[in-house]
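TA notes, week 10

Several of you asked for a full example with nothing omitted. So below is the full record: structure tokens for the whole chain, then the designed sequence directly under it. When grading your own attempts, check the secondary structure regions first.
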């Protein structure tokens, strides 16, 4: 209650200042620095924060409300959070995410965390948009997703009893447009930082690994066994992804061209963004099309299920043998290690949820 009273008081102050251009220009929202984990400070570069959309307390508050609000959809039934569920590390448990009328695409929604460290700034499985702000534009108007128009969304927000106040607080103006909506959502999404898994604690000297987890990590890092680290990072890259695009041997021919559809380069056909291995305990099903329901399925694919195609990534070095041919013990241990990358506090963090 005190939080809202403070916002109302500030808004009334802004109204009082609005009769003076000087007064309006004097207002600015409260800066809010990202809470960068010590491990990230030690291991990786600084996050990407656009100069035209600085993080603010009011912008993050607005972005969170918009992320969980079904008002952004055509029939007011579906929010961003319905396909990016907090309890599942902001992904969907369905193989193909469904739109407001039950229509489905051919992709499983990507999980959302540590987005401020996506250094190439290419988003979606196929990299079709540049920047987190631009990514937020597409689901609203996609006929297979929220099936609305930005004109309709803006009209609903402007008629809403709370949103004009919140936009005034976040951006110093009560007039609303799609750019400000996506900037607010991007601010909230950049706060979704996952950094407290068991393996994170191990790297910080606050936990120990089981024998199985340690061997699983060794398999992961061994070029003659798992050979996973080239694409998925290591103890020196706690993002657990290279954020690049690879053809990882899923298919011999492609019905979904992935990156190639948008670059127009046949050499990019069948390439998809490397997902982070964080939070695998919550993010099934796996792969861009959700074809694998378990981690065992994923491990078996790389062990003996690789398929050759003209654009197969050179890192799939043992495709001729079907994969890296792991033993049953190494498979089990690799799974144990992969699960140690799951951050159980992240999925219940009240800052990221409405409950």
């Amino acid at each position: 209650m005190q939080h809202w009273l403070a916002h109302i008081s500030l808004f009334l102050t802004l109204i009082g200042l609005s009769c003076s251009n000087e007064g309006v220009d004097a207002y600015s929202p409260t800066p809010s620095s990202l809470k960068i984990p010590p491990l990230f400070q030690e291991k990786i570069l600084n996050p990407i924060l656009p100069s035209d959309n600085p993080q603010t307390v009011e912008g993050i508050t607005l972005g969170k409300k918009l992320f969980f609000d079904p008002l952004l959809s055509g029939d007011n039934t579906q929010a961003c959070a319905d396909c990016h569920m907090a309890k599942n590390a902001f992904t969907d448990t369905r193989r193909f995410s469904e739109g407001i009328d039950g229509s489905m695409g051919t992709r499983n929604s990507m999980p959302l965390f540590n987005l401020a460290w996506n250094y190439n700034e290419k988003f979606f499985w196929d990299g079709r948009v540049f920047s987190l702000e631009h990514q937020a534009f597409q689901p609203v108007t996609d006929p297979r997703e929220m099936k609305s128009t930005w004109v309709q969304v803006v009209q609903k927000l402007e008629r809403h009893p709370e949103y004009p106040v919140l936009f005034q607080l976040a951006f110093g103006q009560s007039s609303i447009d799609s750019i400000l909506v996506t900037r607010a959502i991007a601010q909230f999404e950049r706060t979704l930082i996952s950094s407290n898994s068991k393996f994170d604690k191990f790297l910080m000297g606050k936990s120990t690994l089981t024998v199985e987890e340690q061997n699983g990590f060794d398999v992961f890092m061994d070029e003659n066994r798992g050979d996973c680290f080239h694409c998925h990072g290591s103890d020196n890259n706690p993002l657990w992804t290279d954020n690049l695009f690879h053809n990882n041997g899923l298919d011999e021919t492609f019905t979904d061209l992935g990156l190639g559809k948008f670059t127009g380069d046949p050499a990019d056909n069948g390439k998809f963004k490397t997902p982070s291995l964080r939070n695998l305990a919550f993010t099934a099903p796996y792969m861009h099309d959700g074809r694998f329901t378990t981690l065992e399925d994923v491990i078996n694919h790389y062990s003996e299920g690789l398929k050759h195609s003209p654009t197969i990534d050179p890192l799939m070095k043992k495709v001729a043998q079907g994969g890296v041919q792991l033993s049953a013990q190494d498979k089990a241990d690799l799974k144990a290690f992969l699960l140690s990358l799951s951050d159980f506090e992240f999925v219940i963090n009240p800052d990221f949820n409405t409950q």
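The first strand starts at residue 122 and ends at 123. Use that as a sanity check on your answer.
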